[in-house]
Amino acid sequence: MAESFVAGRAGAAASPVARSRGRLWPLVGIVAGPLALAALGTTHPMHLDGGTAGWWFHLHLLLIPLFPLLGINLWWLLAGERGPLAWVGRVAAFVYLTFYGGLDLLAGVAAGLVRDRATQGGTGEFANVEPWLFMTGNQLGDIGAYAFLLGAALTGGLLLARHGGRAAPGAALLLLAALLFTRSHIYFPVGVGAMLLLAVGCGWLQWVRLGAAARG
What we know:
Blueprint: H1 2-41, H2 53-63, H3 68-77, H4 84-121, H5 130-163, H6 168-184, H7 190-215
């Protein structure tokens, strides 16, 4: 009986630790994408030319799997939310996922590849296609970025309505980050700052959600 009582006390004492660990990994997971984008953003060249083309190309290859994580974050935060606004938020995140990648591929990977090969091969006239790549890429990127802004606004608003003031800082940071993202991509310093704000905002809202779930 005494051993059973001690074991029960030990299990009860360990349960807060177990709960904290259960909240840690979802928190790490949701901030990982924005933090990785912020880190790479510090290396993003401000202009594409013969000297930056090689890294411009390889950087945007690295970004291909990272940009979608921002849309996935919105879906993650909206898990369990019901109603038409939640679904509009999810659709907006999906639009971001599909269109923002077009910017990365055209103005990033393709433009960098064309300029790099043109520079190495001495065929500078090939770089004449760059304006077309940037124009089309930017058009697709604008659709994706503003869709992300809509999704972020709805996500923050829904979590604010559900959790009250505890969610307010995270919702505000998420909205501000999304607004900066529409104009700054991940260029240093504003774009990098947007990703850092996004990491804090998503992390805050995730912590609030997990805390509410733990309290039942």
